[in-house]
Amino acid sequence: MSTTDLRDPAAAQRLVDVPLTTYGRVDFVVANAGSGKTGDFLRLSDVDGEEGFGLKLFGHMRLVRAAWPHLSSAQGSVILLAGRAGRTPSAHSMITGAFVDKIPAIRYASLPAEATAVAKLVLLDTLADAMAGAMETSGVAKLATAYVRDMGEASQSSVIGGGFKTSMQSAAYVNGNLASALEYHAAWSPPNPPASPTLPAILAIAKHLHLSGQRVIEAIVTAFEVQAHLAY
């Protein structure tokens, strides 16, 4: 057994030398070293970040590089393990986690009047776009409607202009095609059409779960805000 600090650039080679000296070969490397200071993203210092990357990223890179010639000759393996915090970030350690935690907190009662007014216009505009798309006799919208109808899935949510219901997922898919078929969908800032890829899914879920109009407005505002923040 050998202990070392992988933040030291020379430590990786020292660690690889242990099995080489003892057994004459290296069959595998398990990169599982993990440590680092956690806390509020905006309060962590550059030194805190450098120490974390020095171990979790550069330490692993140096170790694999040092062992690679021996792994290659022995047809060995490299096993990389990730911690739970990397898969499920929290608001206390990552800015992404803080952003995600804000999303469920959006409520209709706290929305500015201007936001709810725009959301209602977006709803009506997108429904009109989808209805116009459903009247087209050719193109991807017609194909999508026929495809979903033939699948005969669970009767959960309505297909706009189709006269039938299908699963939530398929309703979102075909209604999204209908809403964008004529490219009349509203643009936003940053320039993108955020309604057609989100509103059909919102309506499909709301229809099946019998959600209120206020919950739909909440979801529309949230969808627009998320896309705007991610773009910038």
Q: What is the straight-line distance between the termini?
A: 48 Å
- Assigned CATH superfamily of the largest domain: 2-methylcitrate dehydratase PrpD
Arithmetic mean pLDDT: 85
Q: Which of globular, elongated, flat, extended, rod-shaped describes the shape?
A: elongated
Q: Any idea what the CATH architecture of the largest domain is?
A: Orthogonal Bundle
Largest sheet: 2 strands, parallel
CATH fold description of the largest domain: 2-methylcitrate dehydratase PrpD
Number of strands: 4
Strand order of the largest sheet: 1-2
User: How many independent structural domains?
Assistant: 2
* Elements, N to C (H/E): HEHEHHHHEEHHH
Structural class: mainly alpha
Low-confidence stretches: none
Query: Helix share of residues?
Result: 55-70%
Number of helices: 9
Strand content: 5-15%
CATH class of the largest domain: Mainly Alpha
User: What value does the Rg take, in angstroms?
Assistant: 27 Å
Description:
The chain is elongated, with a radius of gyration of 27 Å. The mean pLDDT is 85. The chain has 2 domains: 11-90, NAD(P)-binding Rossmann-like Domain (Rossmann fold); 106-231, 2-methylcitrate dehydratase PrpD, CATH 1.10.4100. Helix 7 (168-180) packs antiparallel against helix 8. Strands 1-2 form a two-stranded parallel ribbon. A two-stranded antiparallel ribbon has the order 3-4. The protein has 9 helices and 4 strands; from the N terminus they run αβαβααααββααα. The protein has helices at residues 11-23, 46-74, 84-87, 95-102, 113-134, 140-151, 168-180, 199-209, 213-231; strands at 28-31, 77-80, 157-158, 165-166.
